[in-house]
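HUMAN:
Could you generate one sequence with tokenized structure?
ASSISTANT:
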Amino acid sequence: MDLLFNEPKIPFEFNHQLNHAFVLNIDAIISKIPGALPLIYQAVQLSTLKYELPSTPLRYTLQVNHQTDTLSCTSNCDLLTGSQPEQSLLHLLLAEDMMSLPQEDPLLGNTKNLNISDKNYPVNSEETSLKAIAPLAAATPNNAMLLGIYYGNQGWNMPQVQALESWQGKKNAVVNLFTDWTNNSQTIGNLFNQQLLNIWNNKNVPLITWEPFTDPTTPLDIEVRIANGEYDAYINTWADNMKTFLSGADAVYGTADDRRAYLRFAHEMNGNWYPWSAAVGNNSPTDYINMWQHVKGIFNGKGIDSTRLQWVWSANNTDVGGFSAEEFYPGDAYVDWIAVDGYNWGTSNSRSSWNTPQQIYGGMIDRLRMLTDKPLAITEFASTTAGGGMNGKSRWITDAFNYFAMANVKMVVSFNEDKETDWAIFGNMSGDSTYDYNPTTYKIYKSYHNAIASSNIIPSTPTNPRLLTDAQFAGLI
């Protein structure tokens, strides 16, 4: 229905049925208002959001329910239809916020049809009705996250991923794989001619975790050597192959059939388990930055830009070894995404205990948000059953997706391999239910399926030749 702001005031309660497009969009608008605080997330799929919004001189509470498509006010509701523009909800939603938007806003889509010529408009004008906003709903809701998976087979065996996608009812936007710096033409050929193509042809965007391990052993000063150009021949060959892959079937970069990829280079450098970590090798955080900038510069020199390849800088959730993650940041000009890796180890080893998602990720997320405003991903996450059992793991999965939404995470990549412990949510050693697929029976966690069913969890779009929109690819969702 059309909801005009010249309707009678309702002093203490306000509840209106809205069309679904507006309800999906209002979260995006409200989240852009300074001081708008999400107070309550209810239900697994975040169907209800409650906000406390600033106003002059009072505050009021607005609730949006995505299941019933209703907008409700429960305190100081007369401000919704107040005669003073500076005290009206619409003044906050439109005049303060949308007047400053470009015609193509990544959250709201096309805003050029808004016909508001002055911030001091009468609140009962036709242009200030909710009807004016409803057609502008974005294709994705606020708190949207790209759905990703690491399945453990490095892009070789896609039927396993297809079984997962059949069960979860969504394509993965992103599939992660790991590859090293082995200077071997067969390794490079396999990666670009088979593994990445397998992932892309399955309608997933590859997330390439590029680890600078070298044969036969990795030098302890690997970062210094890379920055000084010792590996330039290899990097140039690798980058040339990357550009060919990104160019699509016509082998011409910059045409309609171009592909996309994410490149997660030299991850978890703030730990003490990789040779590119300052805590392990004969390297410093400055050496790491020099290495990153040197490698990125080679790609830039080949004309590979962020519309096709996005660079992901990924820290461990805790600093291990005496160096902080912030010391390794290459700078906004060299990074497209920031990311955090972290796990709930439970009691799977003697040094760990059961932790909530907020305990695991919250500290590092807050720190990285102080460092940059780049979109943030969780590029490895999982929970064990040790210390919580299958019920505990199931609840942890639900809590993780709720927390990631509240933390405005833009990509989530589950680590679906039982490596050190039973991390997987599909097809490995534990599960609270089963799923049959051609003809294998897989153990699964129902809470993962339920969590990603939410409209804020974004899959790839197989009918889109690029699989993701430009905004989705860049995390502007």
